[in-house]
Amino acid sequence: MAQRPDILLILNDDMGYSDLGCYGGEIQTPTLDRLARDGLRFSQFYNTARCSPSRASLLTGLHPHQTGIGILTYDSGPEGYAGNLNHRCVTIAELLRSGGYRTYMSGKWHVSSNLRQPTDSWPMQRGFDAFYGTIIGAGSFYDPNTLTRGNTNVEHEAHAEDFFYTDAISDQAVAFIEQHHREHPDRPCFQYVAYTAPHWPLHAHDEDIARYKGRFDAGWDTLRVERLDRLVKAGILDERWRLSERDPTQPPWTEAQRKEWLLRCMEVYAAQVDRMDQGIGRIVRTLEATGRLDHTLIIFLADNGACAEDIPEGVSIEELVEQLMIARSHTRKGEPVHIGNNPDIMPGPENTYQSYGTAWANLSNTPFRLYKHWIHEGGIATPLIMHWPQGIRERGAIRHTPGYLPDIMATLLDITGIDYPADWGGHAVAPLEGHSLRGALDAELASRPPMFWEHEGNAAVRIGPWKLVRKHPGPWELYDLVADRTELNDLADQHPDRVADMAAQYEAWAARCGVLPRDQVVALMRSQGVTKAFWEDE
Ligand SMILES: [Ca+2]
Question: What is the pTM of this model?
Fold first, then answer.
């Protein structure tokens, strides 16, 4: 075969379906828009509803519970939930390296519970030749916790005055490409770039925030209508699909209080995405300058839908700073950090730690319902852009073929001709769960195997147009996504046999992949000494 293509896999963190310019949003993303215009956009691609499980699935082609990342990276949990990438899986970096690739990563790892000492679930031990980034997420963009190079903590590197994590991830990706081209010009390059933007905290540069002044003044109700209209006009969504209602816990924009602060939150969120796109622009220009862009497959997607979490005032500093090791208690100059959504404090600078809240997340996920954590479309639907001049003939097309994270591994192995192994490093590994989407680079696929999800008891199975989904501890709901992508018309009562059949397929999958009932996971984690975890989030 011809030389294997370079692969650039870009993931971002907690972004809604319709935030990017090329997916109907207001945010200026000229580089991602260009990649979409010269490549493909997928309209029905899905992630796994939350940071760690999505990363585990993306990296391995398996379901998160099979890899030990059933929920998040806690210190202790039952099998399937141990919080460390286990040895019953093999990473995409390990397999591509075995096929001759040099492998690089910059950004957030988040599939290991040990944040200080390198373990066999850290990136350098899981197939990467070089790593720069953070082991945990949700950190300060000015002073991120667990900043690591290779296996060495380099948090001091953030003490340079102009440090900003989004830029550091981009700059490192550029440096890796330049280094690869200089030292290994004839070898294929795999790079995984995992941005933390726009996950909270709302941190951004003033000049980026200023560019969004006024852009959201119409408010969430009007902007949701406008986004759906643009998504339909772009051919991404079907005009038959109705806009979901505004989140019932949120006021109409006309009745919202503290609008100056609310608008600032959305402006900072937009600036976070904008800054990421600027960085991707530098990466793409480096690929062009080295002559590698035409034979690079670029894939861009988000790890979960927009996040509706409010960061309460008075949240325990001890928990965020010392236990979870995400926030900082003080800035690098020693000022206290104000943690929590206080509308008297404008987000953006280093001494703030805030989130944009439910109503803006509702806008980000237009036109869908619900958010990160849930398996309804708002939790798991993501933009997916693929750009590969030598491998994709069509320019600017939309693909409606459904797919989800395990498919990325399957697709990359199919394209590179590398086999998925039965064992790795002396350990048997689970068979690949993903389905190759290589054919979708040329045309829509006629069919695909069922897709399954579970996160914290929320669950779904999709078979053809049908999606069976539940919000823990509620009953199964059934939607026909061809008629009703926004999940407004529950057909469960009209199709009891279909519900029973799909539920049985779900249960068989859950048993096969080691998914435990949520209550059992909670009880087991409590019995193993985990005193506070996901079950107290809600
Ligand atoms: Ca995330």
Answer: 0.97
Q: Report the C-alpha gap between 425 and 107 in whole angstroms.
A: 26
Q: Rounded to whole angstroms, how far apart are CA atoms 13 and 200?
A: 9
Instruction: Give catalytic status of residue 110 as yes or no.
Output: yes
CA of 369 to the centre of ligand 1 (A): 17
User: What are the tens digits of pLDDT across the range 293-347?
Assistant: 999 999 999 999 999 999 988 877 777 787 778 889 999 999 999 999 999 999 9
Give the Cα separation of 69 and 59 in Å (integer): 12
Ligand 1 centroid distance, CA of 525 (Å): 22
User: For residues 27 and 384, what is the distance between their CA atoms, to the nearest angstrom?
Assistant: 16
Residues in contact with 371: Cβ distance below 8 Å, sequence separation at least 6, in sequence order: 305, 306, 307, 308, 358, 361, 362, 365, 378, 379
Q: Which residues of the chain have pLDDT under 70?
A: 1-2, 73-77, 531-538
Q: Are 69 and 91 in contact (CB under 8 A)?
A: no
Strand (E) or helix (H) holding 96: helix 92-98
In the set 22, 51, 265, 307, the catalytic residue is: 51
Is residue 189 part of the annotated active site? The answer reads no
The rounded Å distance from CA 372 to ligand 1 centre is 8
Determine the distance separating the centroid of ligand 1 and the alpha carbon of 89, expressed in angstroms.
Answer: 21
- Please report, for residues 48, 215, 224, the alpha-carbon distance to residue 363 in angstroms, rounded to integers and kept in the order given: 20, 13, 6
